[in-house]
Each structure stands twice: as structure tokens, then as C-alpha cells.
Fold:
Amino acid sequence: MPSNNPDLTKQAPRSARVRLGGYAILPRMLDKGRAATAGKNGEYKFACPLDQRFLQFAGVDPETLKAQLAAGKSDSEILEWINSASTTRPSPAEIAAWSALQEQRVPTDPESRKFFNDIHASIAPKRTDIATWFDLLDLDDYVSFGGKP
Structure:
């Protein structure tokens, strides 16, 4: 996918597992932000609850980030901007630990568990390997674009 021109009506954004600057979630969020700016985000939402986890951790404002994306900046330029604009300035070790934790996140309250289970049941009820939010996102992206569970 060309990094500055994703069309999320035709293909999924990058997996939340993909990292940029050590950050999980970030490349996916950038794809959604670029697509939203171009009006090609389909069902994907920029600054959704998953994105908010990154934005809060990195100390970055979503609207300011979206403006940087609209200016056509590359992933590396965006990462450089995040590192300079961050209000939290996490260290590389903190970023690695946070990203590892995000990859292992599971639904922990009854409402999110029901939401997770309902999506799982609707797209691949026989898949017993879907345990984390990232597992579910990857599966949903795959099935949404014609993959068979």
C-alpha cells in the first residue's frame, strides 16, 4: 500500500501489530488518518478508542496529527514530528513495554467482552485462536476484504 495514499475501501490498513518507532498501533492509525483525509476511510475511524490509547500514551493531539498527515508527510516524518511534539516523551524501553502490552490486551469487562464475542461469533465462530484485540482486528480486516475464516 502506498504509505501516503491508502484507500481503505479497497484494502485494510496495516495491522495494529506493525510498529513504527517501536510503537504498535501507530502505522494502522496513520493509514486511517490519511484515508480519512482523502475521504477513503470506508468503515475505519481515525482516533477510535484503539487510536486513543496510542495518542494518550504518546502525548499527541489527534487533530494536530491529522493536519500533519494532510500535509503529505511520510511515516518517518510523522514519527519525527511525534517525537518532537509529544507531551509525554516515552523512552524506547517504555515504548517497547507499552507496545508489548497492547499486543496482549484482551477484553476485561463484561461490556467489552460481549462486544468482542459478538464480533468473533459473527465472523469466525470456530476460530479458537482469537484471544486478543489485535487477533480480532486482524481477523476482521481479513474477512472484510474477502478472506475466508
User: Anything to note?
Assistant: The chain has a mean pLDDT of 95. Helices lie at 26-37, 49-58, 62-70, 75-85, 92-104, 110-123, 133-144. The chain has two domains: 1-104, 106-149.
